[in-house]
Amino acid sequence: MGDLMAQAAARPRTTAFDVVLRPRRSLVRSTILSVVFSAVPLAVALVWVSLPLRLWTFVATVVIALAVVVGIVFVRLGTAFIGIDPTGVTVRGVLTPHRRVARDRVHSLVLATTYGSAVERTTRELVAFDAAGSHLFRLRADTWGDSGIDRVVEALGVQVSDETRPMSLREFVRRYPASRSWYEQRASYVLVGVFAVLAVAGLLVIETAGLIG
After folding, report:
1. 3-class secondary-structure state, position 108
2. Considering the entire predicted model, what is its pTM?
3. Which of 168, 174, 96, 170 is nearest to 136 (CA)?
4. 136, part of any domain
5. Second label for 205, Cα 20 to 30 Å away, from 44, 120, 161, 211?
């Protein structure tokens, strides 16, 4: 009984907010499809290929670790939301930490359109600042939807600066460096590269040891 009450308390109460946004359903659907049609067959293939090479223990460990990461992402997708009430803005993102910002701190908003490697694939960005110009939070339309961005702008009712010219994601981060997420930091790329190198090196060492043995 106590566990059920704790779970209910952990969920955002819709009646506590004037505006509540959830991640786009298409984002959840595409994530599920990506896992089912890409990650699962790849994991099965890795385990199958590793059996004759006596690498199945190592590969199985990697697959389990990846499955845990995928599970965490699904949990975050299910609990992510944006809530706006008379006193503050609550942002519980999918890949960003939970934060609560007092509503009277939100002084201005910047709306921009960014693109990544493909110029034709753009997404809207919203960045909130306080009166001193300090970054408060950032929202992306590919997660919350264009209509969600518009609802946040309407609900907050503060000064809005609209960057009408699309810009690259690199230019956007350079213009608003404090809005960079943890996975956009240079250290994150280095960490991923080091992990990949160690994984490949581990496979080579185990395979070489098996051949010698």
Report:
1. strand
2. 0.68
3. 96
4. yes
5. 44
- Contact indicator for 106, 89 with CB cutoff of 8 Å: yes
CA angle 120, 125, 130 (to 5 degrees): 160
**Helix (H) or strand (E) run with residue 126 in it:** strand 122-129
Inter-residue contact 142 to 154 (CB < 8 Å): no
Could you tell me the two tokens for 137?
């939070």
Tokens of 158: 């503060």
Proportion of the chain in helix, strand, coil states, percent, rounded to 5: 55, 25, 20
83, 16 Cβ separation under 8 angstroms: yes
Q: Which of 31, 27, 33, 11 is nearest to 145 (CA)?
A: 27
For the segment 141-174, what is each residue's pLDDT rounded down to a tens digit?
Answer: 988 999 999 999 999 999 999 998 999 988 998 8
72 in a domain, yes or no?
no
